[in-house]
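Record type: ASSEMBLY
Status: queued
Input:
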Amino acid sequence: MNIYSDRIAHLRKLMEQEGIDVYYIPMSDCHNSEYVGDHFRCIEFISGFSGSAGHVVVTKDEAWLFADGRYYIQAAHQLEGSGIQLMKWGQPDVPDPDTFLQIQAKGKVIGFDGNVVNTNFAKRISKTAKNVKFQRDLVGEIWTDRPEQTFTDIWHMPVEYCGETTESKLARIRAELSKAEIPCENYAYLLASLDDIAWTFNIRANDVPNNPVAYAYAIIQPDAAKVFSHGDGYGPNWYKGCTPDGEATESLPIALAEKFRDKILTRVIKGFTDYTPKWEDIADDFCILMDMNCVGYSVWRFFTDRRIQVVHIDDPSTKMKGVKNETEIRCLKDAMKRDSAVVIKLMHWVKSHAGKIHLDEMSIDEYLLQKRSEDPLFMEPSFDTIAAYKENGAMMHYEATAQTAKSIQAEGMLLVDSGGQYKDGTTDITRTFILGPITDEEKKAFTLTAVSMLRLLNAKFIDGCRGENLDIMAREPMWQVGWDYKCGTGHGVGHVLNVHEGPHNIRYRIGVNGPSAVLKEGMVVTDEPGVYREGQYGVRTENELLVVPFMETEDGKFLQFENLTFIPIDLDGIDTAYLTEEDKKLLNNYHEAVYETMAPYLEDELKVWLKEYTRPV
Amino acid sequence: MNIYSDRIAHLRKLMEQEGIDVYYIPMSDCHNSEYVGDHFRCIEFISGFSGSAGHVVVTKDEAWLFADGRYYIQAAHQLEGSGIQLMKWGQPDVPDPDTFLQIQAKGKVIGFDGNVVNTNFAKRISKTAKNVKFQRDLVGEIWTDRPEQTFTDIWHMPVEYCGETTESKLARIRAELSKAEIPCENYAYLLASLDDIAWTFNIRANDVPNNPVAYAYAIIQPDAAKVFSHGDGYGPNWYKGCTPDGEATESLPIALAEKFRDKILTRVIKGFTDYTPKWEDIADDFCILMDMNCVGYSVWRFFTDRRIQVVHIDDPSTKMKGVKNETEIRCLKDAMKRDSAVVIKLMHWVKSHAGKIHLDEMSIDEYLLQKRSEDPLFMEPSFDTIAAYKENGAMMHYEATAQTAKSIQAEGMLLVDSGGQYKDGTTDITRTFILGPITDEEKKAFTLTAVSMLRLLNAKFIDGCRGENLDIMAREPMWQVGWDYKCGTGHGVGHVLNVHEGPHNIRYRIGVNGPSAVLKEGMVVTDEPGVYREGQYGVRTENELLVVPFMETEDGKFLQFENLTFIPIDLDGIDTAYLTEEDKKLLNNYHEAVYETMAPYLEDELKVWLKEYTRPV
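Status: finished
Output:
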């Protein structure tokens, strides 16, 4: 029994009052964000689990946390004493949370906060239920010292970094909507995903740590568009950059906002408070378009309860955002090289100082932050640095604290996964450094991870492929020895936006919402295989890749990846017994490119060192 | 102008009478069969195109045939003079037939024969239409000398070959149905796919050439099951093997059928004539379950027009049928070895006789039929033999005729794709034989095809993978040089059933009905990459593979393929310049297994020859 079991008990009392049999708590906000601000970390409040993804289910007698492969180890520790059972999501015998909820809620009353559960998920989990109660946020009612939602200044993303005006983006979105089979001419497209809004309207903020977005909703109509953000009702901070005829400014006072009120959306919406829309007086010749995998169930219910037609569309902005334009690519390539230089410096520093000075996991984060901060375009880390020494590396999303940071010696492996938000790009890089003697199995793991990363990087593929088709290029070297890593191989990366973004990824599993998007020229994706052994070690090697043309022949158009990350793969961990001749060529070619590209960014001493660490095997 | 343009003109007159703007003609029967009997070859009648798959769309002024990559060349020839435009389905700029129909039919009247268009496809193509006319078969009305539907004797598949009784299969299907989320206790599951019915009820016939199935529908209820086949109304040939309490017999006279009438389905269905159901007096506490990707639109409309609830389910029998049981596997392995011996004999014969005796493409089919017929368990070919010499090999589904058969010389490549229906298994095998000098490009094509086949055969993969994940294992060697083959890499194979069957396959594209089934232990799948160069040559190498366990580790359960086809890959076509060291090992290991396995099946002279043609490279 601990503080969390007390909170669960409190929750069960509220459930009983409300007549709820099964209560569901997501790791989400009103915008289906992957990473949420502290205000929305209800799962951590109720269970103690601090991972970035999870689902909690509470019934009268039992409680479960679903955590994915990145968090099996961490979740097991954090749930101790809470009475909450860990469901190792992704294991063959563990159902998906939605399937599990369908079974638990069959013929019963299911409850959840409808603002923070997306429509499609909510519909799935309440499919078998007798009744659905979505109006109350029961965890919020218990959580007395809940942090406020954070609202930071919204700034405009200049075209010199983003490469396309909002007007142009809106025109493309409307063209896409007009191609879709929509049963109404007079539509209002409701956009809730924060990074899609940030991309479409070329705005950025710091409302969610590491993710430069603003809490907002947006409405796009055939002849108008509006962002609702940082205000109560119609005031005070509506953003002007969102209207196609308005010029972007740094902020927008009430007076300006008033000008747009009548012109645009009063016909559709008359109230919009505290980011939970209160929709009134909606004309009936409309239909609402929304991505039901993103917009909250409460919003959907609002419309459908009033018999207003709601049509699902996949957010067209998500697909457009995923394909980087020339400006974004040019900016990103530059940011990636500057960031590669930072990690090369770290690699040299930690390998040459381990065992000689006091170093712990926190030192790594501090070093990276200091070096990155020297870059005038650096804003903040793109996610919490993972500096995980020895067995801590087995926890995919480990985060050291001052209390727990492990001391680093001249032995074993150190996994460092970090990235920066620069004004010209978002980076995400992992390297595992060999700090001294490692075991044969560690060498095998390190080498096969390098092979996996390199084989995917060097894949050629016909236009039309998705990440699901390509994933095996990375995994096959692992699968040949009966190994697997319990996470995806890669994810899209935003441009000065979320470090994880869709619509594409590299995974072998096809999700409940269907396959990921076809890989297209201009998409950025990570390539990050690894080996994770609980209590022993962890290896991950991660590059960012750009989809570029390969060739066009009579058989079609072929694509390939251009490498964006120029950091050595630590040769001290390579055992050539696990490399084929072809793998050796891939590794040597990669290292040659690393040296050629990065030498100009480094001082002479480091150049000599880099030459040695990019030598052919 | 030719006979086909006349027929299109006739069809347009009927369309005008009926007020139809867009008429759609599928290559299908009432059961969504892939291969159809002559009665259902409406596309060949109206367009002259004789391929096994296609779609025809006719409007007032234009007509189109959609043919896939296997048929681009053949269709172009056959459409000459018909005025019908060829749509090269699968090319990036060509829409899918259903998308194309949505555009053509927007705001117009679409027509088709609702018996032969499956429900989901029909719903998709009529989505944008003003009105749908599905009651008349306009092509049938023109087609005066249309062949009758073929009805052959139905026979019982003994448990010694099929390994599981109908009772057991029905119990498994019912268990699966009870797990599904069905909104009614009192269901009738309507099964229309002929091979699923044949598998479930352990019956076989010869109603469709090469596919040992009987035209039939089946109904499965919680406490009853019935096959409707080969009779008018309730008579005369209802099959007894279909009832869980009946013993299988070779045929079923009217008298016996009468016994089951009251007991089982009269409550649901009171008439069933000519295989197009006439449903009457259906109780209203029912729901009908059906696979809407298979059952005809007319049937669905019958129910929904009467406000009877219809619920889509994926046919559970399809998944069960795809996983072969121990008996089926044992039988199939034996059939595959006997069939491999036939093809080895062909290989030896054609390579040693080309240029010495008169040989043409028809001779190959005759030789195979003769050799296979010596096997007492052989019934018929599992599909029309493709014996395609030189440039004919570029047509994936080429069929020689006495008039067109190409004479075979001691040069170039001969592609032979053939298979047998044996009482203990269905085979499907392709080899390309080198009959004399070939070009460097042909050698490259032949070698890369071998590499592609072998790399997929040797893939290891975690449980949970689908064909979409594995396809790149075969294609990557081609994609690395900008080549691709315009067809899937592999398909399921029935057990004494259709040579193509689901629910799994090996392709990179994810179809409109979603991804293929997860690969499971016991599934059989072909592995048949190739290179096709119009007017020049064609190469294909095809083995049948069985999914078997690889290993279980802390990371999960891993699967691999067991090879079922033991025929040399003609070493005269291999250029070792295109083989990595690993590829050489794969080829040599494969050839060693071919010799070890097949030597006992061959006479001494052939053994010596086989030793030479399975030598290490």
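Annotation: The longest strand of chain A covers residues 543-553.
Annotation: The two ends of chain A are 56 Å apart (CA to CA).
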